[in-house]
Design goal:
The protein is α+β, with helices and mostly antiparallel strands and 204 residues long. The protein folds into two domains: 5-101 and 181-203, no CATH class; 105-178, no CATH class. The chain is built from seven helices and ten strands. The protein has helices at residues 8-18, 73-80, 88-92, 106-120, 128-138, 146-155, 182-203; strands spanning 22-29, 32-39, 42-52, 55-60, 65-68, 95-98, 102-104, 158-159, 166-167, 178-180. Helix 1 packs across helix 7 (182-203). The two termini are 18 Å apart.
Amino acid sequence: MSARGPYEDSYRSFLGYAKKHEMTVLHDNGLYRHIRFHTPGNSCGWFQLVTWPGYLSITGDFESYTFCRVEDMFDFFADSGAGWRINPDYWEEKLVASSVVRAHSPEKFRQQVVDYFWEARHRFPGEAADLFREIREDVLAYEEYGETARGALDSFRYRGKDGSRLFEFSDWYEWDLTDWSIHYLRACHAIVWGINRYRSAVKS
């Protein structure tokens, strides 16, 4: 298997569920397939792939996503994913039904907040450390929780010691604070992993 680039962490997360999975082919008739992957005695991380002409659906513990693009969707994912890699941006365009695809990203939230502070710190000479401490306690402390984190951004105010300077996060609602949801990335890995397992079994 080749390296998975920026999705290495999500792949390792997926493998934590799937490394002992067994494959059960429930139906296999041309483009009509129903294949289940699960670890016997453990329901965590199970999933199934179902295909019919022009469609592929994945359901199970990684939420549900249905894609539509070409007649044989196994070929589509194998070709557009380049072997073992996933291509979540392009594949999102082919979704016709899905659970959550994007979710709040604590990493993006933190980066945006720190960048905003860094650009404004010069307006508060001698107070930047105090300002950042309050940002850390009143905003970054909630970075894991989407709605609460955005509320903290909206309500944060810091008044300079001389009373003439105000720091607040203006226009933060224009920031992109989301990234691929872990369920969507796991589903993408599961599709590629499952197709490769199936094709390897068919060849043997």
